[in-house]
Structure to design on (703 residues):
């Protein structure tokens, strides 16, 4: 049986029996910007929860449980003067509360701040407030209960502060109210049975709240925009922003549910997420099987498609339409970009085709990019030859990318909205979700396949020797790589924001954090190797940068020590990482914003000047400065792109960590016997670390 419930400050509404769901809201922000937290608001309380019962007094008797008032009289505490006990609902924290702000940060609840309840908040104004709690059960309104709670002896404020019974005492007022309620009950019952429906009542009594100031407050005053999530959220938990990512995708890239598991299948599934607005496109228009909507005013359109019109004979203007199930929009492509593409015979794209065919293909490619520009798409996912390669077409405010490039971008966007998905069906009806912790933990394990051997061996040793130090060190190594991946997400999100002081600061902070965690992962691997090899010196001396310690390692595990030989790739990588890590003790890394022509602004980070030459020498030995994103814009000042710098460092550190774990002789430990099968992830298609789940995360992380 449905029920209709109205509390003070709420409107009449019909909900299923059981706890009333909370409807949190969101506000529009940037595409990858920070998400707002839930405000302290009255209307944002979990629906169905009643007020906290007042403290019992000798006059009132025990307070009733919420919703347990049928069949007995509910009494409220009498006034106790200026310091009388009452509950005040505020949209913000109050410093006049009993324990102050700090106390109510611990004990308070959203919009339910107790003031004057502990005898210390007398500075708050005393109000006479009438609260109507109306509970209507059933479609026919068979039972109505109204409880009237009085606050301190002051003039009641009813209907804008004017009341004909303003000066009547409480006991004289109660018979009049009861008589009025009896008449009201019979009138409402007859009216509802004859002409009214609860949906109409919802509009009539939609959340009026009266107070001593005579204001009429609506629920929308403290409401939050609709949230796409159905889950109840905590007070300080960030909410997804309203801003959706807009994607134009060539129809031929998307697959159906009969296709095997692949990057295209994962991409197709992610594009069905509610946070993604997808528009499909094809040179020849939608296939005949696509659903169409015909309107006597708007003609025919295909929901979810951009359909290009034929070229007009009198010019180069090309029109196209987009639409969904609710509306249709017309657009136009102006300019001579298609003409330029047709005449661009020097471009290597389609050089193997006949000239006329190549001309048509170049024109069609540019028209697709222009459609993406006109609908303000964030991404255009395509494999068109003329739009890719070194001399690719530059679209305005649209990123042109292949499916392989789009997958990590889409994964980054969803992760910034708090959505962590292993897998999502191509029809959007089935998906595997997980927590942020498990997502990045699985991603770190996927980057460290040698960790399966280490974790198995260290687990066996812990049971045999009753010592869990080695499992703790291996877990710490994975955790630091996991946190470096999270900092990498924050860095890429900041680099994709419009250049400002906040996004620049976020980028540099994330870079510092990620490099420190990567250095910590190498240090943890050194301490684990130290214990495995049984080196006698203190573990504090363990470190791959220590030549004395490496000489001790070489005695027992020469292949392990050889990884960091002088002049090796690992030694140069360690030199770069150490110098950046040590910069936290001196001059901080400074940002530089660069803008060239019509290209968007780029954020660069300075290289540590004290160790500049050592860093550049190591970068020259590891693929050259260009591979690390190093640029020079004036003498004696070198900068690098933070994304390129962190990406190159992360991949090389992960490679070195895997080599360290492979060369560490864990079989020498007590009670350890590792089989080849135990050096691989568990072979369980439905398990937490199945191949599909690990691959889905790795592809979304861009590895």
């Amino acid at each position: 049986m449905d029920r209709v419930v109205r509390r003070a400050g709420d409107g009449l509404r019909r909900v299923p029996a059981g706890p009333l769901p909370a409807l949190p809201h969101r506000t529009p922000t940037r595409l990858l910007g920070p998400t707002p937290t839930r405000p302290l608001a009255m209307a944002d309380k979990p629906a169905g929860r009643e007020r906290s019962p007042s403290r019992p007094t000798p006059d009132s008797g025990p307070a009733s449980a919420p919703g347990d008032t049928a069949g007995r009289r509910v009494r409220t505490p009498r006034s106790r003067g200026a310091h009388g006990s009452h509950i005040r609902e505020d949209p913000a924290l109050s410093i006049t509360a009993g324990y102050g702000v700090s106390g109510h940060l611990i004990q308070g609840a959203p919009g339910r701040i107790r003031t004057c309840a502990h005898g210390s908040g007398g500075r708050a104004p005393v109000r006479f407030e009438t609260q109507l709690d109306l509970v209507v059960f059933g479609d026919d309104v068979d039972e109505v209960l109204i409880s009237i709670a009085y606050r301190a002896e002051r003039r009641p404020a009813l209907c804008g502060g004017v009341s004909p019974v303003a000066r009547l005492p409480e006991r004289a007022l109660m018979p009049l109210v009861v008589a009025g309620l009896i008449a009201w009950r019979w009138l409402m019952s007859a009216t509802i049975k004859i002409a009214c429906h609860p949906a109409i009542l919802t509009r009539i009594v939609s959340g009026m709240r009266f107070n001593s100031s005579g204001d009429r407050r609506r629920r929308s005053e403290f409401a939050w925009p609709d949230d796409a999530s159905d889950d109840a959220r905590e007070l300080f938990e960030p909410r997804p922003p309203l801003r959706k990512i807009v994607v134009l995708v060539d129809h031929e890239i998307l697959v159906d549910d009969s296709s095997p598991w692949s990057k295209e299948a994962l991409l197709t599934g992610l594009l069905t997420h509610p946070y993604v607005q997808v528009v499909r496109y094809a040179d020849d228009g939608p296939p005949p099987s696509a659903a169409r909507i015909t309107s006597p005013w708007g003609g025919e359109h295909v929901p979810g498609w951009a359909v290009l019109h034929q070229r007009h004979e009198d010019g180069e203007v090309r029109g196209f339409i987009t639409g969904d199930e609710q509306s249709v929009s017309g657009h136009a492509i102006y300019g001579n970009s298609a003409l330029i593409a047709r005449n661009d015979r020097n471009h290597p794209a389609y050089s193997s085709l006949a000239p006329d065919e190549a001309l048509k293909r170049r024109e069609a490619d540019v028209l697709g990019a222009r459609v993406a520009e006109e609908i303000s798409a964030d991404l255009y996912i395509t494999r068109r030859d003329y739009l890719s390669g070194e001399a690719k077409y530059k679209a305005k405010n649209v990123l042109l990318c292949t499916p392989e490039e789009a997958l990590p971008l889409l994964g980054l966007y969803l992760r910034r909205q708090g959505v962590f998905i292993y897998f999502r069906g191509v029809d959007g009806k089935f998906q595997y979700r997980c927590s942020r912790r498990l997502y990045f933990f699985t991603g770190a394990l996927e980057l460290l396949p040698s960790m399966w051997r280490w974790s198995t061996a260290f687990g066996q040793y812990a049971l045999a020797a009753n010592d869990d130090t080695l499992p703790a060190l291996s877990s710490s190594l994975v955790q630091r790589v996991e946190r470096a991946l999270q900092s990498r997400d924050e860095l890429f999100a900041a680099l994709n924001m419009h250049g400002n002081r906040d996004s620049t600061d976020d980028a540099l902070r994330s870079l510092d954090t990620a490099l420190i965690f990567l250095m910590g992962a190498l240090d943890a691997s050194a301490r684990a190797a130290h214990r495995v090899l049984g080196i006698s010196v203190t573990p504090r001396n363990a470190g791959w940068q220590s030549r004395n310690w490496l000489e001790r390692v070489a005695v027992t595990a020469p292949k392990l020590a050889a990884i960091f030989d002088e002049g090796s790739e690992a030694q140069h990588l360690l030199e770069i990482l150490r110098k950046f890590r040590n910069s936290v003790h001196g001059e901080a890394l400074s940002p530089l914003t660069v803008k060239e022509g019509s290209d968007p602004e780029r954020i660069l980070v300075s290289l540590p000047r004290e160790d500049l030459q050592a860093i550049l020498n190591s970068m020259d030995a590891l693929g050259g400065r260009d591979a690390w994103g190093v640029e020079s814009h004036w003498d004696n000042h070198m900068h690098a792109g933070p994304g390129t710098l962190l990406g190159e460092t992360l991949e090389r550190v992960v490679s070195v960590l895997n080599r360290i774990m492979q060369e560490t002789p864990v079989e020498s430990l007590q009670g350890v016997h590792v089989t080849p099968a135990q050096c691989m992830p568990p072979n369980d298609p439905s398990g937490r670390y199945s191949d599909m789940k690990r691959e889905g995360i790795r592809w979304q992380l861009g590895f």
